[in-house]
């Protein structure tokens, strides 16, 4: 099959083989299940009586597979409903194949039996040549007219014996059951146009809510440093933001459907954008403010409008766009322009740009930079590596990092005793001794840099476990983004070079304690820490989402991003079906995320079910 | 390229099959009468082909956690006796929808168990049809047809309209039906076929 790096599902009853090849859509992570796109199938009839060269094979796409499935199952159901008398005519080969008698039969089927019985209510003679349908052949055979399907046989008809028909319907049913077993995919796979309107909204809401902590962490430094940023009258950022976000999907639900892109049509990011070179001057420009409450968060690594180079992901939501023409478009060269439609629009866009959320006077713009790839990845296509290695000037670090971490703290549930968010909150040094260090981001041995970085490692560490417990999806996001941040840090701060043994050891230890929520995660991490050697020329991190079977073997491998697909054979991931970790004690299959760093770093976290 | 093989063994669980049937349309009382007949005949075909008796059916019921519906031999007999074509009135019971569903699941379970035999019989039947030979000339089919015809005549009320030919066709039709009931989703197919056929009659 022509598609590389795709997943093949094979269904192999005795007389035929159905192979379904599809790309796993990045939306899988939003749905929590594999979402297949660009589906192609190949159906081979393995008739031992025929020489290899005469074996029949048909090919087609998703819609054709659906049509085939519908035609075959309906036909079989009709066959079962046939009366023995009709069966006898078929058996003895008397006068059956003529269209007239068949139509009669169909009329018989349709009498009082409802729509489920209607094979082809108008009779096959009215069907177009491109239609897939079946009709009884001579002596217990059944003729499958393959219509527009690509086939190896010159004739558009395949004569199926009963056993072949049974095997065909078995394969198709198994395929369909497989799809049904993955909720929300059934419709996606069979009727790409029928994406429920709320799916996109839900995804957008999750994205925006998920991005809130990161928004805040960027907003607040500006509040501190630049007076204009604190235009919001409410001093508690998380709550006002959520209240801004929530009404939008609800009220615009009905309007959204026309402009929703089906997930299958999400653009795949071009592979060439992986090595962006951000502006070395990392400043924090403040967006011009609208009279209403405006939250504007320019990219930290990319203030000068070159986001196209940095492989950023974008989600642009502009429900009511009359006055939201973004004044805040400073750092977002490829942001989707707000639609001029009076309705609402969600554009799930290219891998470049920013997250923009506007509603009347409220504009929230969340450019997503390399430090927050998780929030945007699933929508952005397959290129999910944090490609930006911000070469921020050292002096900007101490100003921004503390704020980031403080914001994370503010997201933890109040019941856990976390202080209410206070922009001026600086954790006391006493946190440091008892807390687990941030992965790959440690209090550097260099005293001066430690002073500068004090709040960064301490605050998040003390708050991290509560995050993990309270919100698993956030925890993965936070963990991975923190980890990504960690890997990008060494570039900025020589003191925190990953080659520093203490750094690595402590980072590894922290990952072990923080993210090893199950023994499988720990084992997988240890496995890759032993095995993972970055291949020469690997410029970015590889990410894989693995489904582990109950017995601990690998059930599914989903490479995330082009590079991850390209390097899947060198990733060291065991083959599908191979024993990998210990069996799951709770008797469930689980999903883990593996990030193999180009610098040799390994992160494994459990993905929420 | 990643390969995901799907073994045919991955069938839905019994509970989901039960729920699946629950979601489908339920028959009215007239249909139910007809369904009783059809179910009894499907089981009769299984008996004739695979030589299974009530033991196997009860075992299937317990495997499927359907003991509450079909607890013992007497209950099974009463269920099958509900077929209006059956001889005698004694012990006849009204078959309710739940019991019909239970019999559907048992039939499909047994068909799946004996799928190999069913396949072989169908392959033989195809071969005979292709060569224009009478099906009963093949030993397996001949035995099956005989067993089916005999048991039918033994159990069902006499009816002049029922000829040996008709019974032969019925037996062969049921054989092919059994093949399709033995596959994945067979329970669904059988249930829908029962409904459709009973609606027509």
Overall description:
With about 600 residues, chain A is of the alpha+beta class. Chain A is built from 19 helices and 17 strands. A 5-stranded antiparallel sheet of chain A has the order 1-2-3-4-7. A 5-stranded mixed sheet of chain A has the order 9-13-12-10-11, covered by helices on one side. In chain A, α2 (about 60-80) packs across α5 (about 160-180) and α7 (about 195-225) packs antiparallel against α8 (about 240-245). In chain A, about 50% of the residues are buried. The model of chain A is unreliable at about 95-125, about 180-190 and about 225-505 (pLDDT under 50). In chain B, about 65% of the residues lie in helices and about 0% in strands. Chain B contains 9 helices and 1 strand, in the order βααααααααα. Chain B has about 200 residues and is mainly alpha-helical. The mean pLDDT of chain B is about 85. The interface of A and B includes residues 10, 13, 88, 91 and 568 of A. β1 of chain A pairs parallel with β1 of chain B.
């Amino acid at each position: 099959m022509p598609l590389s790096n795709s997943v093949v599902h094979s269904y192999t009853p005795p007389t035929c083989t159905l192979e379904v090849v599809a790309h796993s859509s990045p939306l899988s992570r939003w749905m929590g299940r594999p979402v297949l796109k660009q589906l192609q199938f190949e159906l081979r009839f393995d008739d031992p009586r025929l020489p290899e060269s005469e074996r029949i094979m048909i090919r087609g796409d998703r819609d054709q597979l659906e049509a085939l499935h519908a035609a075959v199952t309906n036909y079989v159901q009709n066959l079962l409903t046939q009366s023995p008398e009709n069966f006898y005519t078929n058996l003895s080969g008397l006068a059956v194949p003529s269209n007239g008698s068949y139509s009669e039969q169909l009329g018989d089927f349709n009498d009082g039996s409802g729509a489920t019985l209607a094979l082809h209510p108008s009779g096959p003679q009215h069907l177009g040549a491109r239609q897939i349908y079946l009709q009884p052949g001579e002596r217990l055979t059944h003729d499958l007219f393959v219509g527009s399907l690509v086939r190896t046989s010159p004739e558009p008809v395949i004569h199926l014996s009963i056993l072949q028909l049974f095997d065909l319907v078995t394969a198709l049913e198994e395929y369909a059951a497989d799809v049904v077993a993955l909720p929300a995919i059934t419709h996606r796979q069979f009727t790409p146009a029928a994406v429920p309107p709320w799916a996109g909204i839900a995804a957008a809401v999750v994205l925006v809510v998920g991005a809130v902590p990161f928004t805040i962490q960027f907003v607040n430094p500006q509040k501190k440093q630049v007076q204009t940023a604190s235009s919001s009258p409410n001093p508690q950022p998380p709550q006002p933001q959520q209240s801004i976000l929530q009404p939008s999907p609800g009220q615009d639900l009905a309007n959204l459907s026309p402009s929703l892109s089906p997930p299958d049509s999400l653009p795949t990011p071009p592979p060439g954008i992986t090595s962006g070179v951000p502006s070395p001057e990392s400043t924090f420009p403040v967006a011009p403010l609208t009279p209403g409450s405006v939250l504007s968060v320019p990219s930290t690594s990319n203030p000068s409008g070159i986001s196209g180079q940095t492989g950023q992901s974008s989600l642009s939501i502009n429900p009511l766009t009359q006055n939201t023409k973004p004044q805040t478009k400073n750092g977002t060269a490829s942001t989707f322009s707000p639609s001029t439609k009076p309705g609402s629009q969600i554009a799930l866009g290219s891998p470049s740009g920013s997250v923009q959320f506007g509603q009347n006077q409220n504009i929230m713009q969340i450019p997503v930079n390399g430090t927050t790839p998780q929030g945007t990845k699933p929508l952005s296509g397959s290129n999910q590596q944090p490609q930006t290695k911000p070469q921020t000037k050292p002096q900007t670090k101490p100003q921004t990092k503390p704020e980031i971490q403080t914001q994370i703290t503010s997201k933890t549930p109040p019941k856990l005793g976390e202080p209410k968010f206070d922009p001026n909150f600086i954790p006391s040094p006493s946190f440091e001794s008892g807390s687990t260090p941030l992965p790959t981001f440690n209090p550097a041995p260099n005293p001066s840099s430690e002073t500068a970085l004090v709040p960064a490692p301490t605050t998040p560490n003390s708050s991290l476990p509560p995050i993990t417990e309270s919100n698993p999806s956030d925890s993965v996001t936070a963990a991975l983004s923190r980890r990504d941040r960690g890997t990008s840090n060494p570039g900025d701060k020589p003191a925190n070079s990953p080659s520093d043994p203490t750094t690595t050891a402590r980072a590894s230890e922290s990952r072990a304690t923080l993210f090893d929520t199950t023994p499988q995660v720990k084992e997988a991490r240890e496995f890759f820490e032993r095995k993972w050697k970055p291949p020469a020329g690997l410029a970015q991190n590889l990410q894989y989402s693995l489904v582990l079977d109950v017995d601990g073997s690998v059930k599914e491998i989903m490479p995330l991003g082009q590079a991850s697909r390209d390097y899947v054979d060198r990733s060291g991931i065991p083959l599908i079906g191979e024993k990998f970790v210990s069996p799951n004690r709770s008797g469930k299959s689980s999903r883990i995320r593996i990030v193999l760093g180009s610098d040799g770093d390994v992160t494994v976290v459990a993905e929420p079910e | 390229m990643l390969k995901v093989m799907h073994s045919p063994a991955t069938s839905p669980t019994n509970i989901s099959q039960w729920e699946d049937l629950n979601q489908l349309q339920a028959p009215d009382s007239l249909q139910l009468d007809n369904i009783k007949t059809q179910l009894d005949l499907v089981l009769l075909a299984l008996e004739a082909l695979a030589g299974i008796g009530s033991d196997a059916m009860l075992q299937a019921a317990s495997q499927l956690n359907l003991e509450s519906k079909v607890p013992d031999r007497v209950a099974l007999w009463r269920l099958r006796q509900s077929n209006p074509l059956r001889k005698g009135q004694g012990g006849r019971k009204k078959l309710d929808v739940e019991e019909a569903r239970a019999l559907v699941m048992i039939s499909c379970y047994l068909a799946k168990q004996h799928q190999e035999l069913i396949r072989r019989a169908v392959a033989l039947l195809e071969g005979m049809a292709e060569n224009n030979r009478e099906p009963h000339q093949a030993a397996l089919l001949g035995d099956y047809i005989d067993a089916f015809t005999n048991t039918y005549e033994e159990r069902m009320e006499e009816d002049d309209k029922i000829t040996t030919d008709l019974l032969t066709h019925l037996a062969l039709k049921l054989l092919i039906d059994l093949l399709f009931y033995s596959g994945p989703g067979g329970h669904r197919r059988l249930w829908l076929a029962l409904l459709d056929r009973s609606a027509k009659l």
